[in-house]
Amino acid sequence: MNIHINANHLKYISLITLTLQNAILGLSMRYARTRPGDIFLSSTAVLMSEFVKLITCLILVFNEEGKDFQKFVKTLHKTIIANPTDTLKVCVPSLVYIVQNNLLYVSASHLDAATYQVTYQLKILTTAMFAVVILRKKLLSTQWGALVLLLVGVVMVQLAQTVTDASAAAAASQTTNGIEQNRFLGLMAALGACFLSGFAGIYFEKILKGADISVWMRNVQLSLLSLPFGAITCFVSDASKIFEHGFFFGYDLFIWYLVMLQAGGGLIVAVVVKYADNILKGFATSLAIIISCVASIYIFDFNLTFKFAFGAALVIVSIFLYGYDPNKKATNSAGPIKVVTSSGGPLRPDEEKLLP
């Protein structure tokens, strides 16, 4: 069966998917942590997300192996059991991602969605820092300028949300659904998540690059090793609450939706990101920031100030500037996108669609 895919449509699908993933997750996490009712334990939500991701990726690997159960089992054994060195390497990012996801919930509990969204872009800075230190990469002058703009923008956003007068300070110290809003704690959690995100990304590039393993099998390894780390985190941080109220305390349909979103969102992005160049990724992140700001005004009564808007604008400009390479010619603008048919073979020349 022939598949005709317009390359321009793929880019738009990528843009929409990346934008929604970036915006909706932050808004959903903030709403889940501040809405009325029983507050779920975020450590259990992180663990359940890894479990859902594991099951999803196992199904995808099974499909990759032609739905042959024996071949599927042999592949799992060969990749995970018979290759312990590679599996042990994945232990590091598995632990990092568990801690990072827990920190993101802490940040979402104490920062409004817009501030959280802008501050989390500092992962660009931490990734660049680790790339320079670990991989010995050289950044362009435009990229250094972008990192300075990014830092200034995030600082302005934080200063815009700093409470100065006494009445506002009293309002800021109030609790939201039993959780005392501590902006400093939220900021530190976001910075910690950015630091871990940068390290994990560069670790993969340094240690695991070039391995002949599919993205789904790699995620099976990650999730499988994340489960024990996630379980330990649950009982270290929330043991008394789990024994008193139960593991799924506070869960309802929205929390399960959040678990699915966190588990599946990253996998969806992994599929579409290959069709997204740096400019499109910049558009997606920028649109996500704008959506988060607008949605926060109506959902969370967020007060958008000029200083916040200017800081967010600097962050958006820095994202585009960091992804811009003046020395690189646009080769993708005229090249064909290779699409694989359901039979597994490449499209014939008359089936390929060129970018406009």
Automatic annotation (TrEMBL):
Main location: membrane
Entry membrane topology: Multi-pass membrane protein
Gene source species: Musca domestica
Family assignment from sequence similarity: Belongs to the nucleotide-sugar transporter family. SLC35A subfamily.
Protein name in the entry: Nucleotide-sugar transporter
GO molecular function: pyrimidine nucleotide-sugar transmembrane transporter activity
Keywords: Membrane, Sugar transport, Transmembrane, Transmembrane helix, Transport
Chain segments annotated as transmembrane: 39-62, 144-164, 184-204, 224-243, 255-276, 283-300, 306-324
PANTHER family to which the protein is assigned, alphabetical: NUCLEOTIDE-SUGAR TRANSMEMBRANE TRANSPORTER (PTHR10231)
Compartments it resides in: Membrane
Claim: Metal-binding is one of the keywords in the record: no
GO cellular component: Golgi membrane
Statement: the UniProt record of this protein carries the keyword Aminoacyl-tRNA synthetase: no
Top-rank taxon, per record: Eukaryota
